[in-house]
Design brief:
It contains no helices and 14 strands. The chain has about 190 residues and is mostly beta strands. The strands form 4 sheets. A 5-stranded antiparallel beta sheet has the order 1-5-4-3-2, with no helix packed on it. A 5-stranded mixed barrel has the order 6-11-10-12-14. It has strands at about 20-25, 30, 50, 65-70, 75-80, 85-90, 95, 100-105, 105-110, 115, 130, 140-145, 170, 180-185.
């Protein structure tokens, strides 16, 4: 389980496209400043999928991937370009009932839709799930779809002989787990 947001140099799955914009930390979520208290505090070097704007307008929120964060100015540069691919933890929760996770998926497939989910049940460091609505029954903004990295694609041969990696299996389909996969940014609205 991740204890914090994804960091380090190996977070990108594509070399573009880029539509980068600076965003004040109180205007994107979920993280501990602007979301559930159990979420990780964003720090320099974190790379995650975030929704922008008031949570009251869910699910009509732009979604971006953090390219950089500056803790001194409390601003992040987010990439909003549809088609950008980045690594992210995806949680297997598919449904909530009475404020708690109530259904989970055992597998994650290529092209499967993932959502920015501010729910308390998501592990620290995870902002994406398979649930189209959160633990308060409000619709979640779509972040994009599960994708492959070039090193996983059997048609490229990059990194050696590859077999199709999907579907990928979660630890089980009866409780909360996450997988680190590539996600192509493809939100509902912009």
């Amino acid at each position: 389980m991740p204890n914090d947001f994804l960091t380090g140099p190996d977070w990108q799955g594509s070399s573009g496209p880029y539509v980068n914009r600076m965003v004040w930390y109180e205007d994107f979520w979920p993280h501990s400043v602007n979301g559930p208290a159990g979420k990780h505090a964003i720090a320099d070097g974190d790379h995650m999928f975030f929704a922008i704007g008031p949570t009251a307008q869910k699910p009509i929120n732009p979604v971006g991937v953090s390219v950089s964060y500056n803790s001194a100015t409390h601003t992040a540069v987010l990439n909003f370009a549809p088609g950008f691919i980045a690594k992210a933890y995806v949680c297997n929760i598919t449904t909530y009932a009475q404020g708690s996770a109530s259904a989970w998926s055992a597998t994650l497939d290529f092209g499967q839709i993932v959502y920015v989910d501010p729910s308390d049940d998501l592990p620290t460091g995870v902002t994406l799930s398979l649930a189209s609505a959160d633990d308060k029954a409000a619709n979640n903004p779509r972040a994009g779809v599960v994708w492959t990295a070039q090193t996983e694609d059997p048609s490229t041969g990059i990194g050696g002989a590859n077999t199709w990696p999907f579907p990928k299996s979660f630890e089980d389909g009866t409780s909360t787990h996450e997988l680190l996969v590539y996600v192509m940014l493809w939100p509902d609205s912009f």
